[in-house]
Request: fold
Amino acid sequence: MSWNFEEIRQKALQEIFAITEANELESLRVKYLGRKGLIAQIFSSLTSLSDDQRPLVGKNTNELRNEITQFIEEKKKEIQQLKEKGDAQESLDITIPGVAVELGHQHILIQTMDEICGIFENLGFAVYEGPEIETEFNNFTALNIPVDHPSRDAFDTFYLKVEDPTNKGRYLLLRSHTSPSQIRIMQEFTPPLAVVVPGKVYRPDAVDASHSFMFHQIEGLLVDQGIKFSDLKGLLSIFCKRLFGENIKMRFRPHFFPFTEPSAEVDISCYICEGKGCSVCGRKGWLEIMGCGMVHPKVFQHVGYPKGKYTGLAFGMGVERMAMLKYGINDIRIFFENDLRFLRQF
Ligand code: PHE
Reply:
């Protein structure tokens, strides 16, 4: 049998060169250098050669074996090095960008509440929170809202099937405004006091672009001796400028609330048309932002303050409405739909 050493050498080189895995290299080593491998076969065939052929073929076989051994060794090193490099890259590659942790942020309504409360805190007000479940007494009676007032109707207030443990009313209810907190504050503290109350309120309104059965209000209450209506107007005009900008105009419109006398509704000049009249302000040039007034003497009477000793101012605003005006949002429902495309804008 004759062997084409050059052909074998070329083929072995090619095969070894193409290898990428250590286990494949091992099977090639077995194929060429193993006990029953090609080199071993060539060696065992030497016996059939003539005496003068044998030394040359033997020498060529030895050379071929050494060469293949060397190829395999080199390839082994190469694979090892690649693996080490790969391992190192996997465990420590300081050039790979870090995995960004997405930070959440406060809901636009919370941001708006914080901003509004912050303005009043800077003016010396404290922040107080009252419960969402209230008594009829705090939500209506103590606020001088008569028994036959339509807001007491079950169509306008969510009553709970829980009897009022104070016996000053029949059932507990979900507060329909933050004003009952005025009662709690005045029962707990003696003037002078200046407090804002942010929180949720509930009304059984059909949901549409401007109504929601739950929304947020911020109540304000300032009571001391000698507080005047001009204090109310001055305070709210500072507030409007701080929230909506120095150029905003504010006006008071006479209104009625049972728990304040006199009462007013507060308008700001429309931020879109600057008072000229447009579709946002309904061509009026003004936007209503809150209710306010001087605390009614009957309210002081209900909380047990001495007759005639104190005067006070109170105001209440809707947080959704403020955010809608400030950011040009035209549908209240979008605050509560958890649509991140909306929420991420703020
Ligand atoms: N509670 C009133 C409302 O919900 C707002 C208000 C608060 C008015 C305080 C006057 C004083 O409409």
Q: What stands out?
A: The radius of gyration is 43 Å. Strands lie at 126-127, 133-134, 159-163, 171-174, 193-202, 214-224, 250-257, 260-269, 286-295, 311-318. Residues 177, 179, 219, 257, 260, 291-293, 314-316 surround phenylalanine (CB under 6 Å). The chain has eleven helices and ten strands.
